[in-house]
Design goal:
Strand order of the largest sheet: 1-4
Shape: flat
Number of helices: 3
Mean pLDDT: 90
Oligomer: single chain
Low-confidence stretches: none
Structural class: alpha+beta
Radius of gyration: 17 Å
């Protein structure tokens, strides 16, 4: 699976290729059915991976990157802030763990609006959302 505590260098390229093929096939099916603008697909995880090797893989970290696709997605862009990969950076908190710069709540709020959740309902759905500068990352059209 995708829990790459070991075998990262051997397994990860194949895992990414399988994910790429599956997401492409699914998106093409939504196009053929004429529902691409009504279907949004995204990845999610409750943890990320460290940047530091544990010898044969990586351990659990705090941040991660996600894919989002669909006809209503403002795509071909990077949303959030790319981390600086440096052991001296303020985002580096030790053992290859990076402090995330974008909250999963911001990601979820952007999707929730697309699903029809109003701005007044968002704090009830995502109670920590008010802790962040923006609640809309702008990736949905």
């Amino acid at each position: 699976g995708f829990d790459t505590h070991d075998g990262l260098m051997e397994d990860h390229p194949g895992l990414m290729a399988r994910l790429d093929e599956a997401m492409l096939a699914f998106y093409q099916a939504t196009l053929e059915l004429g529902v691409a603008n009504q279907v949004t697909t995204f990845t999610a995880s409750d943890f990320g991976r460290t940047l530091a090797s544990n010898g044969d893989g990586t351990d659990h970290g705090w941040g991660g990157h996600h894919f989002i696709m669909g006809g209503a997605v403002n795509g071909r862009k990077f949303y959030g802030t790319a981390p600086t990969v440096s052991i001296t950076d303020d985002e580096q908190v030790g053992q290859g763990r990076l402090l995330p710069t974008t909250s999963v709540d911001q990601f979820a709020a952007t999707l929730a609006r697309w699903f029809g959740v109003s701005n007044t309902e968002l704090p009830g759905v995502l109670p920590n959302l008010g802790n962040f500068a923006t609640s809309n990352l702008g990736f949905m059209v």
